[in-house]
Amino acid sequence: MARAELDKDPHDVAAMFDGVARRYDLTNTVLTAGQDRRWRKLTRQALELRPGQKVLDLAAGTAVSTEELAKSGAWTVAADFSLGMLRAGAGRAVPKVAADALHLPFADASFDAATISFGLRNVADTARALAELARVTRPGGRLVVCEFATPTWTPYRVAYQDVMLRRVLPAIARRVSSNPEAYTYLSESIVDWPPQRRLAEIIAGAGWTRVAWRDLAGGAVALHRATRA
């Protein structure tokens, strides 16, 4: 089955996620030892959503993250470029839109808030995707990016990258995932991803202000928060 390369060709990435869609949520829960549920809750809390507000959940996959956001009472829409992922989440009662992160099908200032969880790493142009999110978010609106990051303690970082990402993750994926090859790409893309401070700089350069982040799991994951300029 398909896997993507680090050039992140959109067709290859979409095909890869189509291939993992069937068991995607289960695989994530196993790989994170259930921490994915906590991270979704923290993302919702960081957005500080209020009933009636509109929020875009980009790279929403099966819309499990969108359902979590909807608990706030906000109107939430799931957007993803993998039709297989959207179909896998068809049973979740939130609006779903097939969308390219670099060409979002929404008008300027359509949303009060926007978020992307574990998906920014998969787009071909990070800064452009962040600028698109800024375009469709009203001035003063909020952004939260939940993404894999760089552990801050050197011994943990070395063990995480050399043992967890290169050995443990592929071994678990072979037993659980519907497309184990995709998780080789996953580990490579995490190692290749910029550290927290550099990502904050990219976010700030794409039309966002008051950028800050919170490390989770010892820095293996980070929540970046920002406000639309």
Mean pLDDT: 94
By DSSP (H or I, 4+ residues per run), the number of helices equals 9
Which word captures the global form?
Answer: globular
- Helix percentage range: 40-55%
Beta percentage is 15-25%
What's the alpha carbon Rg, rounded to whole Å?
16 Å
Give the spatial strand order of the biggest sheet: 3-2-1-4-5-7-6
- Decide which structural class fits the backbone: alpha/beta
**What low-confidence regions span 5 or more consecutive residues with pLDDT below 50?**
none
Summarize the helix and strand pattern as letters. Answer: HHHEHEHEEHEHHHEE
N-to-C CA distance? 42 Å
Most strands sheet: 7 strands, mixed
Q: Please provide the count of β strands.
A: 7
Summary tags:
alpha/beta; seven-stranded mixed β-sheet; 9 helices; 22% strand; globular; SAM-dependent_MTases_sf; menaquinone biosynthesis
